[in-house]
Write a structure and sequence with these properties.
The complex is a heterodimer of chains A (about 140) and B (about 500). Chain A has 7 helices and 4 strands, in the order H-H-H-H-E-H-H-E-E-E-H. By secondary structure, chain A is an alpha+beta fold. Chain A folds into 2 domains: about 55 residues, no CATH class; about 60 residues, Glutaredoxin (3-Layer(aba) Sandwich). Chain A has a 4-stranded mixed sheet, with helices on one face. In chain A, strand 3 and strand 4 form a beta hairpin. In chain A, helix 1 crosses helix 3 and helix 2 packs antiparallel against helix 3. Chain A is elongated. The two termini of chain A are about 10 Å apart. Chain B is α/β, with parallel strands linked by helices and about 500 residues long. Chain B folds into 4 domains: about 90 residues, 3-Layer(aba) Sandwich (Glutaredoxin), CATH 3.40.30.10; about 210 residues, 3-Layer(aba) Sandwich (Rossmann fold), CATH 3.40.50.11540; about 90 residues, Roll (Ubiquitin-like (UB roll)); about 90 residues, de novo design (two linked rop proteins) (Up-down Bundle), CATH 1.20.1440.230. Chain B has 21 helices and 16 strands. In chain B, the strands form 4 sheets. In chain B, strands 2-1-3-4-5 form a 5-stranded mixed sheet, covered by helices on one side. Chain B has a 5-stranded mixed sheet with strand order 13-12-16-14-15. In chain B, helix 7 packs across helix 10, helix 9 packs across helix 11 and helix 10 packs across helix 13. The chains are: A alpha+beta (about 140), B alpha/beta (about 500). At the A-B interface, helix 2, helix 4 and helix 5 of A face helix 1, helix 9, helix 11, strand 12 and strand 16 of B.
Chain lengths: ~140, ~500
């Protein structure tokens, strides 16, 4: 996944596409993260001004949702489902193995809706069923 | 010739894209159609070929199998080690009662022609010929209840919204399918998205709404893409927009993508999230039916509820309610998951037993070890031991048995499961996902984790078990929504049904 470097001007272009939306704050944060890979510190004030919200409103939304992040992401993103159905087929053990190998790239996931073919992982946006360390490493390349 | 290779994300997760690419490059004259999955997920990627005698299936197929399949003349249903025979005759599928999932796996999800050829739009066209009171009467008469878990009668909810006087009303489809062990919403959206759109359009006409939202999880990127395309196609066809199929009704539909919050599956938290705010639960009343999205009257239904509506309108309420037991009428789309040999979608009339699903369809565990527990209804559902497997799967029987049907997810565990660890996880998950508005959920879940840790460590086990049950009572009775209110269900059912796991580590095994 490639992202644009943060710039206020580019951010304003993104926000302009949401001008007609009702309740745009969460969408704006998601759109900026999709563009730049994360929500830059300056984005909070920018969104607040653009949509006539308080900075507290925007900060509150930013800090509520697990998906949103305020620092640039790792170049690879691996998410291992650790919810019940995947636990039942050993996802906790898999998560340990994958974390030992890929460290900070690995995050807990909670269900990708692939519960009959677990353990499930999401690797750089691609879904991996009956996941093993080898399969994950192969998709990660 | 037509060759079907599912584009469902479960099939893709085990290599369906590679299989489709291999077929496209190696089989001369093949038209590869990326259908939804038939739901027999352990057979994925399941390839089907269309012949004069119907569709024949092979699975699970890998890209490496394509050469031998070609050698076996699979395009003419030739015999091969992976042959499954005629798709319609595979017992696992043939014995199901597909109503809501009638078209999933059968059609090209983004072909409106295919959709109409298989009964699509019949329900909507009939609805357009009825008064809104008649539509609501039909849905009420069918006995259709909310498939998200609460089981509230859909017709009654619609009637409340229809009766509210307002400039603007909304239809919201809850596709925030966060429960582990559930994937029917995802498979329906990926395999037959027009059915959801049709159900939402009928709801809109019935209550007088002109704007709909589908709140879809960010964890479902494949479903988001397919639904976006389907909405675009429905627009171009003159189905969505200012004149629904040429009528005086107007209906617009938008997707709002979630951001990784489980509690946003709770209907009022979902409304907050669609409004772009923190996903904090609202107190009820006011009911969302009267003051919902942006303060306006709003129908909120689960994807499966809305997707059952076209069949109710097309075939009539009597046909729909001819299936089921007691007050649980129609079919339920069960989702068989976890440590199970033959997992996937099992759509059957309410009243099938747990045993028939997990042993009959599931074929036992994937590991081969005996089943020790099943969790039904997601992370907030109860853990059942084998001696309760004769329980009927319907709303009322599940409640009598100390559980709930929820969204119909059934997660199978073998003998290696530690129910104290599962109970701890239930509390930890609640602590992680609580919206924080009410104290029993926000603080209780963390205290719950600590107390279960003490039990596991063998510290004052009896006292701490008593304390844990007391905490569960406070959370059940004092929480604002089902997140805190039902987290005690997996905890208490684990303690009650598997007491041997709660004796403290030092005393165990």
């Amino acid at each position: 996944m490639t992202y644009s470097p943060w710039s206020k001007e580019a951010a304003l272009v993104v926000l302009a596409t949401l001008r007609e939306e009702k309740g745009p704050v969460l969408m704006a944060l998601q759109a900026l993260q999709n563009e730049f890979g994360y929500v830059h510190a300056e984005a909070v004030g920018l969104i607040a001004t653009y949509f006539n919200k308080s900075r507290a409103d925007v900060h509150g939304v930013l800090t509520f949702y697990h998906d949103l992040r305020t620092t640039p992401p790792q170049s690879n993103q691996i998410s291992i489902c650790v919810a019940e159905a995947c636990q039942a087929v050993g996802s906790r053990q898999l998560e340990k193995e994958v974390k030992a190998k890929f460290g900070a790239e690995v995050h807990d996931g909670y269900c990708f809706g692939n519960c009959a073919l677990g353990p499930c992982a999401m690797v750089n946006g691609a879904i991996v069923g009956r996941a093993t360390l080898e399969k994950i490493a192969k998709v990660r390349q | 010739m037509k060759i079907y290779v599912p584009g469902d994300s479960a099939a893709i997760s085990v290599g369906a894209d590679d299989v489709a690419a291999a077929i496209a490059s190696k089989v001369v004259g093949a038209t590869v159609i990326r259908n939804g999955s038939r739901g027999a997920l352990w057979l994925e990627p399941m390839v089907e070929v269309e012949t004069a005698d119907g569709r024949f299936a092979y699975g699970p197929v890998t890209a490496d199998d394509i050469d031998s399949l070609i050698a076996a003349d699979f395009i003419n249903a030739g015999k091969h080690a992976l042959s499954l025979g005629a798709t319609e005759e595979i017992p696992w599928l043939a014995t199901q009662e597909r109503v809501t999932f009638n078209r999933v796996g059968l059609i090209d999800p983004l072909s409106l022609a295919d959709y109409e050829a298989h009964g699509g739009l019949v329900g909507l066209r009939r609805a357009l010929s009825l008064s809104n009171a008649q539509i609501i009467e039909e849905v009420t008469e069918s006995g259709l209840r909310g498939r998200g878990g609460a089981g509230f009668p859909a017709g009654i909810k619609w009637k409340t919204v229809a009766g509210a006087v307002s400039e603007q009303k909304y239809i919201c489809a809850n596709a925030d399918e966060g429960d582990s062990g559930t994937f029917a919403d995802r498979m329906l959206i990926e395999g037959d998205p027009f059915t959801l759109i049709e159900g939402m359009t009928i709801a809109a006409i019935a209550v007088g709404a002109t704007q709909g939202y589908v709140y879809l999880r960010s964890e479902y990127p494949y479903a988001i893409k397919i639904l976006q395309k389907a909405i675009y196609i429905a627009h171009a066809f003159g189905w969505l927009g200012s004149s629904v199929l040429g009528s005086h009704h107007s209906f617009e539909l938008k997707i709002r993508v979630g951001a990784g919050s489980y509690v946003c599956g709770e209907e009022t938290a979902m409304l907050e999230s669609i409004e772009g705010k923190r996903g904090v639960v609202r107190a009820k009343p006011p009911l969302p039916a009267l003051e919902g999205l942006f303060g306006m009257p709003t129908v909120i239904n689960n994807v499966l509820t809305l997707s059952s509506v076209p069949a109710v309108l097309a075939d009539g309420a009597a046909a729909y309610k001819s299936r089921g037991v007691g007050r649980s009428l129609g079919t339920q789309v069960f989702q068989l998951a976890g440590n199970v040999k033959q997992g996937g979608i099992v759509e059957k009339a309410f009243g099938i037993t747990i045993d028939e699903v997990v042993h009959g369809y599931g074929g036992g565990t994937l590991s081969g070890a005996p089943i020790r527990a099943v969790q039904i209804g997601g992370p907030l559902g109860a853990y059942f031991p084998a001696d309760k497997f004769q329980t009927s799967l319907d709303y009322e029987s599940m409640i009598s048995a100390g559980g709930m049907l929820g969204h119909g997810g059934i997660v199978v565990f073998d003998e290696s499961v530690d129910l104290a660890a599962q109970a701890r996880f239930a509390m930890a998950f609640c602590a992680l996902e609580s919206c924080g508005k009410c104290t029993p959920c926000r603080i209780g879940s963390t205290r719950g984790v600590e107390t279960i840790d003490l039990i596991i460590q063998g510290v004052q086990v009896e006292e701490n078990k008593k304390l844990l049950l007391d905490l569960c009572e406070v959370m059940t009775d004092g929480s604002l929504c089902a997140m805190g209110g039902l987290t005690p269900m997996p905890v208490k059912s684990a303690m009650l049904n598997f007491p041997e796991d709660f004796t403290g580590e030092v005393n165990r095994r």
